[in-house]
Amino acid sequence: MRKILLLLLASLPVMAFAQGFQVNLHGQKQIGMGHTGTGLAQDGASVLFNPGAMAMLPDNYIQAGISPLIFKSGFNPSGTNDAYYTKNKIATPFTAYAVWGPKSSFWKLGLGVYTPFGGLTDWGNEWQGKYVLESLNLKAIAIQPTLSIRLADFVSIGGGFVYNIGDVDLQRAIPLANAAGADGQARLKGSGHGYGWNAGIFFKTESGITVGIDYRSKLKTTINNGDAIFGVPASLATSFPQPNTFTASIPLPSTTSLGLGYYPSSRWTLAADVNYVHWSVYKVLAFDYAQNTSALQDTYSPRNYKDAYSLRGGAQYKANDKLFLRAGGGYASTAVRDGYVTPEAPDANRYYFTGGLGYKLAKRLDLDFSFEYEKLLSRTQTNIESQLAGTFKTHVYIPGVSLAYHW
């Protein structure tokens, strides 16, 4: 019984923000250019990519965008020809930014509201891994007020406080059949919050290259009074007391980014970013229950994640005064070690390609589109806790659109 419970709790996805749950959809211009932006001063998305660049923006901004995310994953159990696939669900990460400062002033204020983590996965209740996961709906929203100061014509700095709100709803089967032969069910629901900060510096070099360095701190997110809802045979109801709650806390990793911008002509902008995510802070997953029984004990599960990195590159071409064309791509390593891969985030090393275009609807009104395709390398694994063994193959498709007003 305790092993069943341990496997259930070990899969709670809000504690498993692998690179697969790092949304990275924070601006349509930046997505179109391969997610580059740390070394550029393009628009209000600098609030997130590099607060130091905000003071270099020639305009004030109000902008918002959305990037519907379609996650398609398949699983082939080891030693079989069976295949299981996630159902068609669409997650909706969004961004909203505002940047303001007096004209020609040395400072600007900014506010960002964005979704740094999230996931929407539904494997159904008939696949082989139903005792690990049936469905997941994960949302995280960050709110970041920001200040940026231009120290000189060639350098500016900035920083902001980050408040993170998270919400998770996970369902899975429990191998405890009732008289009709139906599996037991477990549902874990909870919300929590965390705090952190984001700071950056932006340089303009004599050669015309721009350089940005950004650091987003660790967020220790805590879930208090999360609901643990169990549907089990009546004979076992006392082993899973209802109602019941849990408390858990985790460190979401810090991220260090270095970005470059290069402008070979008035029509071209080239950019490159390197990101290092400090996932090694995530070592264990622990739960404290308000009510314990001999079958429902507090749990402690190792994770032992490793640091991960991503390499990004992109370009923008100004076709005319109204039309901008963008393209890019990159590679990202996984933070999940062998033996820890789970179906809510079947993470693996991945590469991606992006494209986009921007169109000026009016002098101060911009419409931007992007599209991204991600290919995760197939990964054959046996999870050390659930013993779920097989091969995951995953593709991600992400269109996006945003509207920006600047003055």
Strand proportion: over 45%
The largest pleated sheet is described as: 14 strands, antiparallel, barrel
Number of E-type strands? 22
Q: Tell me the name of the CATH homologous superfamily.
A: Outer membrane protein transport protein (OMPP1/FadL/TodX)
Number of separate helices? 3
- CATH fold topology: Porin
CATH level-two architecture? Beta Barrel
Helix content: under 10%
Order of helices and strands: HHHEEEEEEEEEEEEEEEEEEEEEE
What integer is the average pLDDT? 90
Please identify the structural class as seen in this structure: mainly beta
Written account of the structure:
4% of the residues lie in helices and 55% in strands. With 407 residues, it is mostly beta strands. The protein has one domain (2-406): Outer membrane protein transport protein (OMPP1/FadL/TodX) (Porin, Beta Barrel). The protein has a 14-stranded antiparallel β-barrel with strand order 1-5-6-8-9-10-11-14-15-18-19-20-21-22.
Q: How is the secondary structure organized here?
A:
Layout: H1 2-10, H2 28-32, H3 46-49, E1 61-66, E2 69-77, E3 84-85, E4 90-91, E5 94-100, E6 107-114, E7 118-122, E8 135-152, E9 155-174, E10 184-204, E11 210-216, E12 219-231, E13 245-252, E14 255-262, E15 268-277, E16 284-289, E17 299-302, E18 308-318, E19 323-332, E20 350-362, E21 365-382, E22 389-406
Antiparallel strand pairs: 1-5, 1-22, 2-3, 2-4, 2-22, 5-6, 6-8, 7-8, 8-9, 9-10, 10-11, 10-12, 11-14, 12-13, 13-16, 14-15, 15-18, 16-17, 18-19, 19-20, 20-21, 21-22
What keyword list fits this structure?
407 residues; mainly beta; Porin; 14-stranded antiparallel barrel; 3 helices; 22 strands
